Each structure stands twice: as structure tokens, then as C-alpha cells.
Amino acid sequence: MKESILWSGYPSWRQFSWLYLMAGLVAWRGWLFGRFGFSGWIGWAVGAVVLLGTAVVIRRWGHYEILSTRLVVRNGYTGREVGRMDFSDVEQVEIRQGPIASLFGIGTVIALSSRRPTLRFRGVDDPEGVKRRIEVAIRSTVQSAQSHGEVA
Questions:
Q1: Smallest Cα–Cα separation from 110: which of 99, 95, 125?
Q2: For helices 41-61 and 17-35, what crossing angle results, to 10°?
């Protein structure tokens, strides 16, 4: 049976707001150097671009999927599976949000199991919605298995 993708996504751009802030500060310093005739402003400008590029690269590294029978974290560049958890192993789904993440509307959705390593979807938009999607997918999988007599 082919698995269907119920949801997929990357970490939110807002997950890397600290990198944008640092890039802005570096760019501002470069502008000040250039404005007042100090040498080295080009280095600061290049540094700002590198920081922004780093944010883009890091964001695309983790790709999250809710499939019809499992949760998967993939490398966004190679497609290689980095982590997975079958619905049958998921014991609890939690959300972790600090105050700033809560303000930005992002959070980490965590699937917990005593049999498998913890699986995290870090910095996703609408973590409550992602958690609900996981819980609905798990319930529908269990109900489907019960209706087919696969689970007691």
C-alpha cells in the first residue's frame, strides 16, 4: 500500500529571526563603517549576506512529513530520511514553545515514545494545527486497523 502525504512542511522563516537580527546588525555596522569612511565595510556587508544565506540553507535542511502511517523528518536537500516514528509507536504528542516562539506563532511539535527516539518538528508554523493533524492521523489509522480486524 502506498503511503499518502497528509501534511509536509519546513521550519518557519520566523524560526531564524535571530539570524536575521544578527545579519541586520552586521549590515548596519558595515553601513556605518562605509558612511564614516572607515575601511572594512565590505567585510561587514559580506558577513551580513553570509548570515542571510545561512538562514536559507538551515531552513531548508529539515523537511517534515505526516504520512498515512508514520511521521518522518527528511533532509530537505537529499530527501534522505533522518528520523521516523510509526503511529503505533507514538504515545504522546506535545508542543514546546518559549515566550518568543509563542509570540511568533511557531513551536516545536514533539512525538514521544518509550520504544523509539523522540521525533521533533522544530519551529513549525501553527504548532497546534500540526499536533491536531498528527492526532487525527493516528486516530484514523487505529480506527481503520480496528475495522479491518488488525488490532484487538
A1: 95
A2: 170
Q: Is 86 left (phi over 0), alpha (psi -120 to 50) or beta?
A: beta
**Where does residue 115 rank: exposed (0-12), middle (13-18), buried (19+ CB within 10 A)?**
exposed
Q: How far apart are CA 37 and CA 39, in angstroms?
A: 7
**What one-letter code names the amino acid at 135?**
E
The beta strands (E) that lie in 30-142 are given as 62-67, 70-75, 81-86, 92-96, 106-112, 119-125
3-state secondary structure of 98: coil
Locate 142 and state its grid cell: 487505529
In tens digits, what is the pLDDT along the chain, a chain of 152 residues?
688 999 999 999 999 999 999 999 999 999 999 999 999 999 999 999 999 999 989 999 999 999 999 999 999 999 999 999 999 999 999 999 999 999 999 999 999 999 999 999 999 999 999 999 999 999 998 787 777 776 54
Among residues 61, 58, 73, 60, which one has the least CA distance to residue 130?
Answer: 73
Cell of 28: 548596519
- DSSP assigned state of 111: E
